[in-house]
Amino acid sequence: MNLVTLTARDLPDAWFQAVYNLLEIGREFIVNYGSYAEQKRLEYDYITINILYPGVRPLIPDIPPHYGIPNPVEPDYPDKYLHYLMEDDRKPGEYYTYGTYIKPQMYKIIERYKGHYKKTGGYRSNQECIIVGDWKDHLDMSDPPCCRQIDTRIQDGKLHFFIYFRSWDLWGGFPANLAGMQLLKEYMAMEIGVADGEMVVASKGLHLYNYVWELAQARTGLKRSSALYLTAEELEEKGFAEIMRKEL
Fold this sequence. Notes:
The chain has helices at 11-25, 77-86, 98-120, 137-140, 173-192, 213-220, 232-238, 240-247; strands spanning 3-8, 27-30, 40-43, 46-51, 129-131, 147-155, 158-165, 168-169, 195-203, 206-209. By secondary structure, it is α/β, with parallel strands linked by helices.
């Protein structure tokens, strides 16, 4: 396996580096089974990215107009996504929102960090991990949560996030998810009374669907030839607008 480690300045830099690097070294394959069986992806074996200053604005990708390609994240989407992360507003037919899992744990973690500090004068603990999902999800859901944990640590007076996704769409999901999670981290840090810190994100399933490979190549300037491009008929048949909605 090719285990990749990147260090990025901020969220847009992390996204650009991950896209660029994936075009260079990613594996091409067809998904055998799961939520998107028979679809074609370019994917990392495993990747870890240390984002040093995730709070630097803008939080979403920076795509100059002359590239002529749309930004994968709308400017106001991170604020909307923060609500999804913090509240359990399930729509008809939805099993969960991330807020279903995050909201009760987040407030408990804030209380515990503040209590530890009041009692001991320190924040050091390895217990304050937000777990997303349940083992029964694999029995009850056709699409279990992609994000599986948001682990936390307060070190050097800053709150840091350690985030793991089992499967992760790089083009639109990665920047939208992390922008919202950065806002979540800032909120928690403010409530605890510490500064905002770094992010370390990891996944064994960070991927690009091949319908965006041309966009990725246009943004990075890299060219990648492949036999796995989807035809226009395949794009329409597989309904990729619905796929992108689920990936977020």
